[in-house]
Amino acid sequence: MKSLKVLIVEDDLTMAESIQETLEEAGHEIVGKARNSREALNVVKHQMPDLALLDITLEGTADTGIMIAKQMIAISPMPVIYLTAHDDPGIVAQAQETRPAAYLLKPFRHKELAIQIELAYYNYKAQHATLVNPHTSPSLFLPVDQGKGYIKVNKKEVMYLMAAGSYVEVHTVRDSKPLIFSMNLGYLSQFFMIQGFHRLSRSLVVNLEYIERIEKGQLFMTNRDTAVPFPENQHRELLQRLAIVRTP
């Protein structure tokens, strides 16, 4: 078994150190311990871990392990394992959107944890050996006609994605009408967690390159006359993602 570079995302310092000790005894290297998304993404960018272990609920931050996993995968695809005390079906369903390699409940057995990590890594590698990664691919083939066919969507042409019940509307710069797909936005958005895209709400992901005008709670996109509404409490965060020149 090769030595794996592992990232631990855990707010409990004692738990993080226990996990580190277990994995180092099994011959693996801990390349970072993080308590929030900023710390975790910094490790991903500079250390390129082989695998990440994440708690789902992190105290002292609005981030969740699930949110962090989506961001990490977008930067550097890797197997993720949730190590958590939560067995609530709703939380498990949210975690499934990131396609975790494993979902382990605390308290864990030390020997079992080491075995699960090794199995998760090799199963992930085997599954992705010959597959094109949809997270990093510049285009996607999305299912239409109840999965009977697929339509190509170039990520750079997507202006925004909007939830519509159990469907997702994909608005592209090329098409005057949205492309509609039978899936939820939480699942589809993970493939658009790349530079230029920003999630404004649970129901809206926008490509910042196509924003033409911003008003309070409204966006005006390229080649669209109708405004796209967004939560006013996200106004400040959106401006921070753009090159704003203010009045002197």
Write the layout of secondary structure elements.
Layout: E1 5-9, H1 13-25, E2 29-34, H2 37-47, E3 51-54, H3 65-75, E4 80-84, H4 89-96, E5 102-105, H5 110-128, E6 139-144, E7 149-154, E8 158-164, E9 167-172, E10 179-181, H6 185-188, E11 197-201, E12 204-207, E13 211-215, E14 218-221, E15 228-229, H7 235-240
Parallel strand pairs: 1-2, 1-3, 3-4, 4-5
Antiparallel strand pairs: 6-7, 8-9, 8-12, 9-10, 11-12, 13-14, 14-15
Helix share of residues? 25-40%
Low-confidence spans: pLDDT under 50, at least 5 residues? none
**Structural class assignment:** alpha/beta
Question: What's the tally of helices?
Answer: 7
Shape category: globular
Distance between the termini: 61 Å
One letter per element, helices H and strands E, the order comes to EHEHEHEHEHEEEEEHEEEEEH
Trace the largest sheet across and list its strands: 2-1-3-4-5
Mean pLDDT: 88
How much strand content do the residues show? 25-35%
Major sheet characteristics: 5 strands, parallel
- The total of beta strands comes to 15
Assembly state: single chain
What integer value in Å does the Rg equal? 20 Å
Characterization of this structure:
This protein has 248 residues and is of the alpha/beta class. Helix content is 29%, strand content 29%. The chain is built from 7 helices and 15 strands. The strands form 4 sheets. A 5-stranded parallel sheet has the order 2-1-3-4-5, sandwiched between helices. A 5-stranded antiparallel sheet has the order 10-9-8-12-11, with no helix packed on it. A 3-stranded antiparallel sheet has the order 13-14-15, with no helix packed on it. A hairpin with a 6-residue loop joins strand 14 (218-221) and strand 15. The longest helix has 19 residues, at 110-128. The protein is globular, with a radius of gyration of 20 Å. The chain starts with a strand and ends in an 8-residue tail after the last helix. The model has no long low-confidence stretch (mean pLDDT 88).
